[in-house]
Design goal:
The protein has about 240 residues and is of the alpha/beta class. Helix content is about 45%, strand content about 15%. It has nine helices and five strands. A five-stranded mixed beta sheet has the order 3-2-1-4-5, with helices on both faces. The longest helix has 21 residues. The N and C termini lie far apart (about 45 Å).
Amino acid sequence: MLEQIRQWIERRRSGRTGNTAPENTPNPKIPGDQLLSECRLIVLDLETTGLHPNKDEVIAVGAVAINGGAIDLSDQFDLILRRPELDITKTVLIHGIGPEALTQGHETEDALLFLLEWMNGDPVLAYHSAFDQKFLEKTLKAELGYTQNHTWMDVADVLPAFFPDALTNGKGLDNWADHFGLEVSARHHAASDALATAELTLIALNKAHKNGLKTLRELHDKLRYHRRLKDIHRM
């Protein structure tokens, strides 16, 4: 990934990538008749300086693509942003990203433009996606003036939608990973968490296939129905 972005930045600065302004990045794709067995899905995780989008900031992005119903380890994104001005004293013990890493990270504008190019407008999945969505949208707007709306789906909804009777002893990523016997190598490392989330997503997609769901629209509608049921049960 580091060599890939280095080459991309060199091409961008020499004008060989064309116009890489935010408005010329790929447009977000709308859920339609794209087959789940064929489409590309982005599974993403962020590391931040805290839990509050209004005052905290993104410091690292990890993501992996699901291509053709399989995790594509050659199609990953894993970058720390260069943001040495940020205070990470309250979270450094969680994510392990210290001042030196933030000083040596990638320029934020370059990294975010490369992320948008790499995402290619494909749907994004994350665990508790509202958190990642708010932080990423805030950062893209602040750094690039980018405001396009991508399709987001919450894996924390995907799993119980297809496994409503699962006894997970909790609703966290670790609970579901333990339930399915998955090993998460390094929690609170963006790329590692994204990979674990992708593995859980694949389990759910396999169940979706067995249940007759074939398209991205059908998956999107299934999640919307699941959220409505949750809201009703809260009343």
